[in-house]
Design a protein that fits this description.
This protein is α/β, with parallel strands linked by helices. It is about 40% helix and about 20% strand. Helix 9 links the parallel strand 6 and strand 7. The chain binds S-adenosylmethionine. S-adenosylmethionine (SAM) binds next to loops. S-adenosylmethionine binds next to loops.
Length: about 260
Amino acid sequence: MLSYQHIFHAGNLADVHKHGLMAWVLDYLTQKDKPLTYIETHAGRGLYRLDAPEAVKTGEAAAGIGRVADWFGADHPYARVRDLVVAEHGPAAYPGSPMLAALLLRDMDSLMLAELHPQEFAALNEVMKGRGIRLENRDGLELALAVTPPDPRRGVLLIDPSWEMKTDYDTVPRALDRIARKWPVGILSLWYPILADGRHRNMVGTLTKTFPDALKSEVRFPPHRAGHGMVGSGMVFVNPPWGLDQEAARLAAKFAELGG
Ligand code: SAM
């Protein structure tokens, strides 16, 4: 199907939640002088322009990072990466999660990114070229299952699907379970939408049972427009790094001020 395009949503409140936490995790892991692997199953195009007609049309970025950038001090890794892409690509540039990883990780680290949509993949290829990153135009869960456990074993997986198909709510947690068995030391993260109709709930229940020690971070926000189905953003981290619970709590308190 592949009709989802992240440019309509880049920089929205869900991205702020996901990108804020992912940047924190990656920055934390690079404080140790040991190489790591970063695998992302649903990469998107890596770099967005928030003045693109699609982004302006929805207004989600303006109501997202455009409104809450001050939640992150200048030394927060999410702010640091945004500053770097703005310096290089202009004031409307916004980093996707692969760009967060590319700019926070080091030469000794290994990155693998999958993106299935041919145009998104072509755009990703363009922005990531010359960085020594493995890029695959294929199903991301298939890639993750094929390459885990990675070398180096220390590392992070991000699964950030577009949740276009109902079956995703079954296939994604099942794949995560298989990946966790293959890569028991990996920090495995999954983003999901919190939906007004509660479609995500069974899946979150399954994840909680399968991974009782995982960190779950859920935040709510007012729907972007009347009737908008997404009323919040959720992330699950299997094997969360030390201190992530505190960063998640800090962000949750900020989101709570929005009154969702
Ligand atoms: N992670 C990105 C970020 O935060 O910057 C956004 C990713 S977006 C939510 C989901 C992406 O997954 C879309 O670009 C879509 O084309 C891609 N996609 C959909 N199905 C896929 C699949 N089976 N395997 C890999 N990519 C897929």
